[in-house]
Amino acid sequence: MPEAHALLSASAAARWLNCPPSARLCAEIPDEPTPYAAEGTLAHEMCEVKLEPFVTAVPKRTTASKLAALKKHELYQPEMDGYTDEYVDYIKKTALGLPGKAHIAVEQKVNYSGYAPEGFGTADCVIVYKDRIHIIDFKYGKGVPVSAEDNPQLKLYALGALEAYGMFYPINAVSLHIVQPRLKNFSVWETDVRYIRGWGESIKTVARQAFNGEGDFSSGDHCRFCKLKATCRKRAEDNLKLAEYEFAKPLSRAKDGEPTLSDDEVGEALSLAVNLKRWAEDLEGYALSAALSGKKIKGWKAVEGRTTRTFTDLEKVFQTLEANGFPRETFYERKPLPFTKIEAIVGKADFQKLLEHLIARSQGKPALVPESDKRPEFVPATTAQEDFKQ
Q: Rounded to two decimals, what is the model's pTM?
């Protein structure tokens, strides 16, 4: 289940640690429900129900009944079964791979208020065995890969879990896990208790500022999920300054007289433009919503987009055309459903069992991302072959 909202929530830690005043300001703005958030909540609920029999004695009928109820949700898709099964299997593999019986807690409430005022949250899964604690977080989203490395959300969960279990277990090692099955992203980062507690001490001042609504505003990647990202003055100032000064001066590797940019200059300009593009898209989204709600955005207005045409009665359309000499089969196009649609209908488990031997996998389409992205660099087949020959 999703965590109850603390002002200094673990899920928003990347934002309030980088921009402390945003915590109070965002708390004053009501949450806007989205289908993505609701879908994630449903997937988490399914994970909890599926893990319950592994952790404690639960009748099969009870589990089946709970799952059946969840599958009646309007956002449920058969593929959700497969992805939640992957998470459950990951938990089981982690726990059963230990030398002995481990303590497993699902949807574990944790309190890290000793480091962030009134800080609390819910860790998806906590596994403790002897001197090591595992913090495992399930991400159902497929927009951005999330890394476990130095992840502030998981580190706050770890601090809370250490407070809960530290007096019962001689914990000195910590493993942080991200399970993001829709992106095939399974990330693990290992550290020790000394580092986690030291980090917790290092954020106390910033956390206190955030709780009090103090500190300096700061823009960056952490703005992505901020409720104020479109109208934040600091973000606007930073982006306008970037546009005014950075693009007005020559690029660092500019060559006199060259009419085109070098590849290095393209990379430099692209890095500058990425945040400007995001900001412009956020501004446009806010302005459209505001205009549709009756507000006036200076210099802009909402207009009706391109209209689409549909038949009000398809059967009558075909009857009319047939009566006028057009064969009915002329208006049908027989083609198979998309791969993912067939998988959703069949179900992930049966799909793999029945059709795995009939599936060919092609290389994914290349995408341009910053060098900081954790995914390995794409190597074109021709380049790889040339390297092999050398």
A: 0.81
